[in-house]
Amino acid sequence: MRRERRPRRATRPRAGFRRVLVPVDFTPRSRASLELATQLAGPEGHVRVLHVIETIEHLPARSLHGFYARLTRAATRKLRELVAGRSRPATPQAELRFGNRAAEIVRCAASCRADLIVMASHAVSAADWATVSYRVALAAPCSVLLVK
User: pTM for the full model?
Assistant: First the structure.
């Protein structure tokens, strides 16, 4: 006796991206990127807001402790303000990192398995291709949407 297979239930496609990373520098452009990212993530998506404090190489960290402490306090406050009250359609989570901005954005995208990076960009001249957004777009493990 042969059993008939039941047809698989059709799965409904999910709108939006599952995990969206939004690097911010607290400018109006990066705020616009966050607005767009929350829409793209949809109600089931996750949005991670990342701010990277650029470190100064070749100087002992001890000599810059106070400097980094002030930057950390200011960035933490601004991140809280940026994500406060945003719960629809996607609730953003804030993260603060230190290091090279482009490298840390790419590392964060890989570690959180981002489907999309949404970040602010600006017009550049042909002589100035070394922007953070350009380096991220080349090295990212996922799609990158640059918002102007």
Answer: 0.83
